[in-house]
Amino acid sequence: MIEIYSDRVEISSPGQPLINPARFIDEYQSRNEELADVMRRMGFCEEKGSGMDKALAAIEKYQLPPIKYRISDIRTTIILLAYKKWSEISKEERVQACYQHACLKYLSNEMLTNKSLRERLGVDEKNYPAVSLIIKEALSQGLIKIGTPDGTNRRDIAYIPSWG
User: Fold this and answer.
1) Quick one: three-class SS letters along the chain?
2) 17 or 30, greater pLDDT
3) Which string of b and e fits 81-117 if b means at least 16 CB within 10 Å?
4) Percent of the chain at pLDDT exceeding 70
5) 26 versus 68: which is more confidently predicted?
6) What is d(CA 145, CA 142) in angstroms, rounded to the nearest whole number?
7) Phi/psi of residue 52, each to 5°?
8) Taking residues 61-72, what's their average pLDDT?
9) Angle between the 114-121 and 128-140 helix axes, to the nearest 10 degrees?
10) What is the pLDDT of residue 62?
């Protein structure tokens, strides 16, 4: 089911997910492999499951808030939010944007940096300390980890998802 509101789009699917929502970005699993196989051969869907990656890339391109997930006993809903200014984005949304950015970078054989996150969030270079705080919070929540070798200059540290 797709519901369109003035400030968001909600896409719901029956049932609970087979995989952890934090891994929607890089994993995929079909509930019915036989049906999925037929649909792939007919050209209705792809095998790789890169829809979330493509959605995230578009979200980053337009500097939209991160994707949100709502899971209940009967359905899983993905929420795509309308544009918000930096000042309107909550701390939780900023941290999720950091994690999702790290995942997208990792899947592109790159790493999250303060600069790349500033660009993703549309934050001026002079506000790098605010972005550093977001990265620090994502680290403390275990969403990302340092991806550069020990001894790397503090300014050059880059990050990857915790599962990377």
Assistant:
1) CEEECCCEEEEEEECCCCCCHHHCCCCCCCCCHHHHHHHHHCCCCCCCCCHHHHHHHHHHHCCCCCCEEEECCCEEEEEEECCCCHHHCCHHHHHHHHHHHHHHHHHCCCCECHHHHHHHHCCCHHHHHHHHHHHHHHHHCCCEEECCCCCCCHHHCCEEECCC
2) 17
3) beeeeeeebeeebbbbbbbbbbbbbbbeeebbbbebb
4) 98
5) 68
6) 7
7) -65, -40
8) 93
9) 110
10) 92
Task: Return the structure tokens found at 27.
Answer: 């994993």
Site of tokens 């209940």: 72
pTM above 0.70, yes or no: yes
100 close to 147: Cβ distance less than 8 angstroms:
no
The model's confidence at residue 49, banded by pLDDT at 50, 70 and 90, is: low
pLDDT level of residue 53 (50, 70, 90 thresholds): confident
Place of tokens 């959605």: 55
